[in-house]
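Let's practice the habit of predicting before peeking. Look at the sequence and jot down your guess about where helices and strands might fall. Then scroll down.
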Amino acid sequence: MEKKGKSRLALVVSDKMEQTVVVAIDNRKRHRIYKKTYKHTTRYKVHNANNEAKMGDTVRIVETRPLSREKRWRVVEVVTKGRVTEPPTVLDEPLEERTEK
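Done guessing? Here is the structure:
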């Protein structure tokens, strides 16, 4: 039986830490005076125990007890895999050779 608690769908925006990913949740809010809608993004640090979530994935997260100073959420499942291209690799030749050509 699953524990009850807050559950959210989020997009992984960073996976550079060990067992932690940073996710972003976009919300649309309405300004209380001007009534204009605007987008508000909230970023959470989420526990990713098996390192299964990668950058660009959509994940389901649930609220949990405090795991560290900033981590209060954990990844339950990876809903969809994202397609993030790797950054271009640095050329193996030295800088002097590249500039002379």
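How did you do? The chain has one domain: 7-100.
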